[in-house]
C-alpha cells in the first residue's frame, strides 16, 4: 500500500515537472512574438528602416545591425518593466510561493501598464468597441483590459507613430534630393543619377547633426 502511494506521488511529481517544462517551452516560443507586439521594438525597427531608406544607402547598415540596435534599445527601454516582472512575478514563482496562474496574472500588470501609457485613445477605443469591452477613461481602467484588446491597440499605435517618424525623417532628405535634381537639370546633366550626388550630401548632413545619437535619444524619450 505504501509502495503504491509512493508511486502515485512520483507520478504526480513527474506530471507537474512535465507541465512546467511545457509551460516554459511555450513561453520561449511566444517570446519573439511578445517582443515584437508588446514592447518598443516595432517602433525602433521601423523607424531605423525608414532612416536607411531616406538616406538612400541601400543595405547599409545591414538588416542584422538594425535588428541588433533595435533589440538593445528595446532592452534599455523595457528594463524597468522587466525588473518589475522579475520582482513581483518571477521570483515568487521560482521560490514556489505562487502558482503558474498567479505568475501569469502578475506578469501581465507591468506590461499592460507600459502598453496602456503608450497607446492612443482612438486605437484603444476602436478595439474595445470591436471586442465589446467598456472603453476605459483612466489609465487604471485601461490596465484591467484583457491582453487581446490592449496588445493590438498598442501595436496599432506603434505603427502609426513609426510611420509619423518616417515622414519626419524623409522631409529634410527629400529636400536635398529636390535641390540636387533641379540643379542637375538646370546644368543639363540629365544622364547623371541624382542619387549619386545627393547621397554624400545626405550623409554629410546626418553626420554634422550627430544623427545617430539624436535619433536614438529621440526614440527612447518618446516612450512614457
Structure, explained:
21% of the residues are buried. The chain has helices at 2-38, 41-55, 63-94, 100-117, 121-131, 139-143, 147-186, 194-208, 211-221. It has 224 residues and is mainly α. α2 packs parallel to α7 (147-186) and α4 packs parallel to α7 (147-186). 82% of the residues lie in helices and 0% in strands.
Distance between the termini: 61 Å
Shape: elongated
C-alpha Rg, in Å? 25 Å
Q: Which stretches are poorly predicted, pLDDT < 50 over at least 5 residues? A: 1-13
What's the mean pLDDT score?
A: 80
Note the run of SSEs as H and E: HHHHHHHHH
Structural class: mainly alpha
Name some characteristics of this structure:
single chain; 224 residues; mainly alpha; elongated; disordered N terminus
Sequence-ordered SSE layout with sheet pairings:
Elements: H1 2-38, H2 41-55, H3 63-94, H4 100-117, H5 121-131, H6 139-143, H7 147-186, H8 194-208, H9 211-221
In short:
This protein is mostly helical and 224 residues long.
Amino acid at each position: 500500500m505504501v509502495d503504491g502511494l509512493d508511486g502515485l506521488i512520483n507520478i504526480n511529481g513527474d506530471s507537474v515537472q512535465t507541465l512546467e517544462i511545457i509551460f516554459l517551452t511555450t513561453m520561449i516560443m511566444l517570446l519573439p512574438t511578445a517582443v515584437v507586439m508588446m514592447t518598443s521594438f516595432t517602433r525602433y525597427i521601423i523607424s531605423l528602416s525608414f532612416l536607411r531608406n531616406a538616406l538612400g544607402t541601400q543595405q547599409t547598415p545591414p538588416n542584422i545591425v538594425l535588428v541588433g540596435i533595435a533589440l538593445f534599445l528595446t532592452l534599455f527601454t523595457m528594463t524597468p518593466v522587466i525588473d518589475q516582472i522579475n520582482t513581483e512575478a518571477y521570483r515568487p514563482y521560482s521560490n514556489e510561493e505562487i502558482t503558474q496562474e498567479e505568475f501569469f496574472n502578475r506578469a501581465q500588470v507591468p506590461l499592460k501598464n507600459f502598453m496602456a501609457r503608450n497607446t492612443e485613445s482612438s486605437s484603444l477605443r476602436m478595439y474595445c468597441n470591436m471586442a465589446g469591452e467598456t472603453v476605459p477613461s483612466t489609465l487604471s481602467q485601461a490596465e484591467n483590459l484583457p491582453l487581446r484588446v490592449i496588445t493590438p491597440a498598442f501595436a496599432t499605435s506603434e505603427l502609426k507613430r513609426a510611420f509619423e517618424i518616417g515622414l519626419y525623417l524623409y522631409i529634410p532628405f527629400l529636400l536635398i534630393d529636390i535641390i540636387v535634381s533641379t540643379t542637375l537639370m538646370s546644368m543639363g546633366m540629365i544622364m547623371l543619377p541624382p542619387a549619386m550626388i545627393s547621397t554624400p550630401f545626405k550623409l554629410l548632413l546626418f553626420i554634422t547633426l550627430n544623427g545617430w545619437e539624436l535619433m536614438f535619444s529621440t526614440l527612447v524619450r518618446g516612450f512614457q
